[in-house]
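Example pasted here:
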Amino acid sequence: MALQFTSVEEPSFSRGIDARSAENQIREGFVRDLVNGDIVEGRIKKRKGYESFAGNVPIRVVRYQQPGENKAIVSLDSSIDLSRVDGRPILLYGRSTTGSGSPFSSTVDKALWFTNWETNLRKYFLVNPSATPLTITASPVEHSIPTTNMYIGVSENTNADEDLLSGELLLTSMQVGSDRTITVSYNNNTANPVPVFLYYLDRQYEEGTTYVSPEWTTDAPTDDLDISSATHQLSTANIIYQLYQKVGTDWILSKPDGFYTKADGSVRVRVTADVGTIFKVILSAVPDSQSEEGENNHVLTNRPNSYLFYNCYATIDSADTLYGEGYRSSEIMPETVVYNDVLKTATFAFDPQTALSNIKFNYEQGIIRTNEIYLTGPSVGYFPTIATADSAPQMTLYGLS
């Protein structure tokens, strides 16, 4: 869990925390936030073993919602990642400006314990039988990536134990907006909402690890972008990539007509598009431990989740023109990639008519961040629906670790 730190110039702050008052109204002896400290008999004392006592740190709530279905959503600062917190009881203290008295009031502070809560990393493709796609998003506040240069992916939670990464997916497009919002369009014509994981990975330039090409404008209906190893300077030839097409100010995730590599890591990206179409390519190098050779139905083991970015390569035939130009492998697309959450495996299935035996698999794990806690009422009607979210709740959360 990441926290932001602020230094305060106060002669005395032993009276504690005032997370409710405006900053210019905080009384002498109080501070808005206090991290890594305890107040003992009116004195501030540096906490020993901070990590082990992190549950005692009060955290200010920045947004509070009761959207319906006896649920409440507690949002914390965007610097806090709750994806790996445990499920111990938590305490919410304070009031909500939109409170109706059930359970929080707008006039009286309340302290309420909750044991039934979760950090839900899933989003949902809602049922949509029409031809107009719906969308799910991840805002910059949610994913916390400071650039539009990122990898993005979706896996569909097809049943309790399996996620589908490639195959009959319901999504229609994925894009990164100029404001860094990730948007996934989908058309779910099934009978039920489909849980999905929208994952991502910061891929801004880093020498030896990540290369982001300059904007590339096509000058022919079928055009090639050649990037030499001397240009991208990645540390290995184990490369994965994503290609984006610029539409307006947004970047749309695209698939090229071909992606080819040389033994030294030089690559060629081939696209078919209208002349003047703008693309960019993001390349990243993965270590040998994340590069394997196999064949059809190859299984990656010990994968912690389905948040997987991958590219698969087959050897180019020596009679191919590309071989004569020094290219030795060409990307090959699996028909399906299925992740098994029980076995912690990802299985790649290819068209048996075209798949070769010497396929190379390069991969790395994405992430999902969340700064929201979902509460379920202990009894029916405990959290009545409140149409307006409280963007300035006077609440403090205790108990996370």
